[in-house]
Design brief:
The chain is an alpha+beta fold and about 90 residues long. The chain has three helices and five strands, in the order βββββααα.
Length: about 90
Amino acid sequence: MKKKKIPMRKCILSNEMYPKNDMIRVVINKDGQIFADASGKQQGRGAYVSKNVKLVEEAQQNETLERYFKSNAETLEPVYKEIIRLIYREEIPK
């Protein structure tokens, strides 16, 4: 049986490659709105963030996403909160 290829994406916070399913996509659309895309199918320019709370908190302090999307901290504050919420939602056992 043929092995299925696992798509890999690079985390913009750690610069490491992870499987696409283990990442959260952050998208900027044509209107300039930036948001976390849980489905991974929204239109716009996207970047991938690994599901690691420590990396997200460090990125918030170092303003990594602000530099990547050329935006300010006030705009991306809800995005960081949404990423952390999505990470914890995935970790809750069902």
